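Structure tokens please, single chain.
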Amino acid sequence: MPRASTASDAFNAVAEPRRREILEYLSDEERAVGEIAVALDLGQPSVSKHLQVLRSVGLVDQRRDGKRVLYRTNAHALKTIHDWTSTFQRHWSGQLNRIKHHAERKKEE
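Here you go.
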């Protein structure tokens, strides 16, 4: 079965590590393409392409500020991903508790 286009949904869009980096970087405040490129050591054309994908699935919003275009994450759109990944929180909490108990037993021995 062929893989869906990266611009078809949020899950495919965030499958790319650089896009996740961009989303993380934008989580604090809105920024221009040039700022993102410098901070993440990426070429400006590459950042623009990634932002285009993120915008097409609604994970990033943009606004004009004079000649500059500023980008920010769309927290509402990220909620779908958050809700899905949080279903696994119980699993990871259980794993961490098992590791903690194992380490405590080893320490007592």
